[in-house]
């Protein structure tokens, strides 16, 4: 399997038509599109540590959720931390590809994976108009917010949660992995009594009781990292002979 063929396969399974207009993802860097791919490293983010792991481990490709290059590079300058990673990868002959909001939106992607971990049923898309990349569904049985918070910690591995209690029993849950402040009102419109995301602005957490919706923030990394297993599954569907490893890119600790 070559980089070109593998990227074509993933593009078919995670189509660009699902990407938000502001997004930047895809084939981030590649010295040779016809290079053979035998070893792939999967990570949520392409950090300097992930790049070093790929080089030291003899990997041919990194596949991530968050884009290696999000804002345009004005120059390939080794003093720029993103450009430095690109230079290192190209020198090592390692390609990198990222699948961002389209992986959020696609069936089986970030938000379906999170919904599955929480045991949600009757799942449907929700979100702002034109960007319905989140999911909303129902728990098999209602639970208290404290019980739901324990479920979230167990399912995601989050070390801590920020919770704003609107006094509602948890039954219909909206969720959006990553940064979800912009979709609080969409969650309310979708009929959710509880909204789970990775990051929430202070004003939404403060206003939750007045808005009438429980809010739970479990961390950007922890609400999205479970999708790495789905990326691995897709890679092995493309070529079962590939060696695919997942590495944690989390650099944040709770002190």
Main attributes?
2 domains, elongated, Udp-n-acetylmuramoylalanyl-d-glutamate--2,6- Diaminopimelate Ligase, Chain: A, domain 1, single chain
Low-confidence stretches: none
> In terms of structural class, how would the helical and strand content be classed?
alpha/beta
CATH superfamily of the largest domain: NIF3 (NGG1p interacting factor 3)-like
Mean pLDDT, all residues: 96
How many extended strands? 11
Percent of residues in β-strands: 25-35%
CATH topology of the largest domain: Udp-n-acetylmuramoylalanyl-d-glutamate--2,6- Diaminopimelate Ligase, Chain: A, domain 1
What proportion of the residues is helical, as a percent range? 25-40%
Question: What spatial form do the alpha-carbon principal axes imply?
Answer: elongated
What composes the largest sheet? 6 strands, mixed
Alpha carbon gap, first and last residue: 44 Å
Overall CATH class of the largest domain: Alpha Beta
- The CATH architecture name of the largest domain reads 3-Layer(aba) Sandwich
Name the strands of the widest sheet in spatial order: 5-6-8-9-10-7
Tell me the number of helical segments per DSSP (H or I, 4 or more residues long).
10
| Elements, N to C (H/E) | HEEHEHEHHEEHEEHEHEHHE
């Amino acid at each position: 399997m070559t980089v070109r063929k593998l990227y074509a396969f993933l593009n078919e399974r995670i189509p660009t038509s699902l990407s938000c207009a502001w997004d930047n993802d895809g084939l981030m860097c590649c010295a040779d599109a016809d290079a053979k791919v035998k070893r792939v490293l999967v990570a949520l983010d392409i950090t300097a540590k992930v790049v070093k792991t790929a080089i030291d481990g003899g990997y041919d490709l990194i596949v991530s959720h968050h884009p290696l290059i999000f804002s345009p590079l004005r120059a390939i300058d080794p003093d720029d931390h993103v450009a430095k990673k690109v230079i290192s990868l190209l020198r090592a002959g390692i390609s990198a590809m990222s699948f961002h909001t389209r992986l959020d939106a696609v069936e089986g992607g970030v938000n379906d994976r999170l919904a599955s971990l929480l045991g949600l049923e009757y799942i449907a898309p929700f979100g702002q108009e034109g960007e319905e990349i989140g999911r909303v569904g129902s728990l098999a049985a209602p639970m208290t917010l404290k019980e739901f918070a324990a479920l979230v910690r167990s399912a995601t591995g989050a070390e801590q949660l920020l919770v704003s209690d609107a006094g509602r029993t948890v039954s219909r849950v909206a969720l959006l992995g990553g940064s979800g402040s912009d979709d609080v009102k969409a969650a309310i419109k979708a009929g959710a009594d509880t909204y789970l995301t990775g990051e929430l602005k202070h004003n939404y957490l403060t206003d939750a009781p007045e808005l009438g919706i429980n809010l739970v923030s479990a961390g950007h990394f922890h609400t999205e990292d479970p999708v790495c297993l789905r990326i691995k599954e897709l890679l092995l569907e493309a070529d079962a002979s590939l060696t695919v490893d997942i590495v944690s890119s989390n650099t944040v600790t709770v002190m």
